[in-house]
Amino acid sequence: xxxxxxxxxxxxxxxxxxxxxxxxxxxxxxxxxxxxxxxxxxxxxxxxxxxxxxxxxxxxxxxxxxxxxxxxxxxxxxxxxxxxxxxxxxxxxxxxxxxxxxxxxxxxxxxxxxxxxxxxxxxxxxxxxxxxxxxxxxxxxxxxxxxxxxxxxxxxxxxxxxxxxxxxxxxxxxxxxxxxxxxxxxxxxxxxxxxxxxxxxxxxxxxxxxxxxxxxxxxxxxxxxxxxxxxxxxxxxxxxxxxxxxxxxxxxxxxxxx
Length: 258
Hints:
By secondary structure, this protein is of the alpha/beta class.
């Protein structure tokens, strides 16, 4: 919170929202502490007096070195009083100074930083698109690039040191693991002996039941073929045979009379 300016309520809410979003953004690389509203959580010593930037960045190693300060401005706070008071003060620190301004005030902020010779490591623009806040890097000074490279190099060193420390910790724990394994081996041998003893016992023989003999198959009687019935002559042939018999009978009778 600026000690000089009292922002409208709407701008103050937007200001605090941007601060919280920046805390999430910078937490990936640094330890980020914020001072939203009238809170005074993290301070920076300038001479003997404490100052409270919007975001204070510390390194994540044990030394917890001050890496950077971040100041968020709104449309009302981009003015000469703020630039001469806070921007110049934070720009004189060894830590990098990052300045965030709304998109409508980028030209004014750049002009005032140039006129007052404020050492701004990174100049950012934030804009609200729908419900999402977007941040765009507009300008980075040579000192800011050098500091960014130094931070990246320190992070690479810490990662390499952590990777080297992991195999050493594993090697230190290896003897204890080997001793525990040597103690476990006799138990495994004892269990193997018990298994062999139980396997050496003769198995109980089970008498097999006699298999029932299969019954002989019954012989099937051969089927007797049915006799074919005599064919019946057609009626016409029977009638002709009777007629021929009738003619023969009278002739035999007359022969007897003579």
